[in-house]
Amino acid sequence: MTSEPLQSAYVAMRISHPSGNHAAALALAAQLRGIPAYIVVPNNAPACKLAAVKEYGGSLILCEPTMAAREATAAKVAGETGATFVPPYDYGPVIAGQGTIGLELLQQVPELDVVVVPVSGGGMLSGITLAAKALKPGIVVIAAEPCGSNDAADVAASKRAGQLVTHLPKPVTIADGLQARLGQHTWPVVRDLVDGVVAISDAEIVAAMQLLFERMKLVVEPSGAAGLAAGGRLRDKTSMVTGPDAG
Predict the structure, then answer these.
(1) Per residue in 104-117, is it b (16+ CB within 10 Å) or e — as a string?
(2) Is pTM, for the whole model, over 0.90?
């Protein structure tokens, strides 16, 4: 958002109900540029998430909490306003932006050997993987995915099958920011470059949150604690899916 004219507008779609990081970030970026941002959100999104988007100047458009409704509403808003649609994860510029996390990690800890990244839609995982492996090809990148009470870890299933698995339901999990699905841009990165996927339970996520709070005095949302939860099982190779027909 550096070279386009100031009269441009942006429309974001909250794919992974009810995360909101993409929506809030885009609303703030648009506010700093003095342009409107139209944020499409499911009508059952938590009030605290909606309040954050409003505080950053985003115009909220509510829709039914289904993927089809969100995509249709976002397309309608873009058509009516002329706004540019900015997907939350399956989009090159967003993936590139997320890659700066990988750059910062290796700038701060050059000797880093392993990175564990929470995953749902795969934008952050893809960006970090591409950046980290470009700078340090031997680095290992592991995805941390909630399996949910309904055992719906689709990233692990896709990695195991060697092809994108789309039939699983959304995971029923406390990590409500990790309920999106891999896309056409993120899946190839996961398939070819991510070294493994660890599916974790809600109990493991809660234990990681407790550890962060008690030992580091950090209050971390479940989705953010997923990486630490998976990190505790990295020595158990049987718990990691590394490729087709792998554990």
Answers:
(1) ebbeeeeeeeebbb
(2) no
Gap between the Cα atoms of 178 and 118, Å rounded: 8
pLDDT in tens, 179-237: 889 999 999 999 999 999 999 999 999 999 999 999 999 999 999 999 999 998 887 87
